[in-house]
Design a protein that fits this description.
Rossmann fold; alpha/beta; single chain
């Protein structure tokens, strides 16, 4: 399966990338490197430095990589900072996800793998088979 891992240069994302590659999946990584590190991305993965809030660039990457499924780890996650700068977190975390979903819709991808640490492991274990169907609104 061809996966696009958004936020794949972060701690959890980079571990997911390695596990997906080891399981035989083709992986492309998109990360703006605001908190991730390029050196953390497995060299077997295609890497694109971009911010998913740039919908045009995200659409281009989705089309170029002929992605089957998207796993999203792109988020700011420092709780104390989020209390001091909530709009920064809302813009990045919510705005980024909305932009990513819009890009996916425009290139007609089938669904999203939710990516909390626990769900990412279970999604990979199931070879992301449930990623190809849209998730119901209730979870």
């Amino acid at each position: 399966m061809k996966l696009l891992v958004v936020g794949g240069a972060g701690y959890i994302g980079s571990h997911f990338v390695k596990a997906a590659l080891d399981a035989g999946h083709e992986v492309a990584v998109a990360d703006n490197l605001s908190t991730g590190h390029r050196a953390s991305v497995d060299e077997r993965a295609l890497f694109a430095q971009l911010d998913v809030r740039d919908q045009a660039a995200t659409c281009d990457l989705l089309e170029q990589s002929t992605t089957d499924a998207v796993v999203n780890f792109a988020a700011f996650s420092i709780a104390s900072e989020s209390m001091q700068e909530p709009l920064k977190y809302f813009d990045n975390n919510v705005g980024g996800m909305v932009s990513l979903l819009a890009a996916m819709r425009s290139v007609v991808l089938g669904g999203v793998c939710p990516a909390s640490a626990r769900s990412a492991r279970s999604a990979l274990a199931a070879s992301c088979s449930r990623c190809l169907a849209p998730l119901p609104a209730w979870g």
